[in-house]
Amino acid sequence: MKRPWEGHRLGLDKAREALAWACEDGIKHITAYVLSLENFATRPRQELRYILKCMGMEADSIMQNTNHVVHKHGVKVNFIGRLSVLPSWLLEKIDAVEKKTAKYKKHILNVALAYGGQQEIADAVRRISEKVMKGIISPAVINEKIVKEHLYTNGQPMPDLILRTGGEKRLSNFMTFQSAYSELIFLDKRWPELTREDFESAISEFSQRQRRFGK
Question: Among residues of the chain, what percentage have pLDDT more than 90?
């Protein structure tokens, strides 16, 4: 009998597929919400260890397998979140992956791990405050652009489309600042059940929407 959380492994397999689909469709920036900061604190410890183990195994695969989708499509991998809460053995692995893929320019994958959108804003405010105290930034010049430059995703565009599976109709603390004008698509299917047809249908629906950006 399989443990319920072993579905995370199926989810990881699907993530590789979806990354390939995105790359083949010419999507440059992709962010995968793997583990929220709240989940990191509240998930059963055995389940959490299993998730982190899967992440470590995937990092090893990227480092050792030249046919991995990351190398095949030239994907630069970034890990975002409060990574300091992760175990040191995993930090070493993800650091190696970031260095290994740093030269790639075709696509960028953000892996949100121990991530929270509100916490990301709080961390940005903290860094800005430190610069204000040092006289590097004047409070008078702080605006949306300054905040954006201190987020984990600095230098990347705001997400055009956010796709959520599993039947939930909320963002669950994902890219709280960046998602202000993102188009949202929700699917009832669970993530491992996502098909290429579902993915392409979401892209097609997005392309037909009229975006106003608050105008």
Answer: 88
Q: Does 87 share its domain with 141? A: no
pLDDT at 209 over 60: yes
Whether residue 131 sits in one domain with residue 28: no
State the sign of the Cα–Cα–Cα–Cα dihedral 124, 115, 58, 198: negative
pTM: 0.94
Structural domain span for residue 79: 1-115
Is residue 59 included in any domain, yes or no? yes
| Domain count along the chain | 3
Angstrom CA distances, 201 to 37, 204, 209, stand at: 31, 5, 13
The Cα–Cα gap between 164 and 66 comes to 30
Strands 107-115 and 75-80: parallel
**What is the CB neighbour count within 10 angstroms for residue 149?**
12
State whether 89 and 133 are in the same domain: no
DSSP per position, 164-207? E-SS--S--SSSTTTTTT-EEEE-SS-GGG--HHHHHHHHHHHH
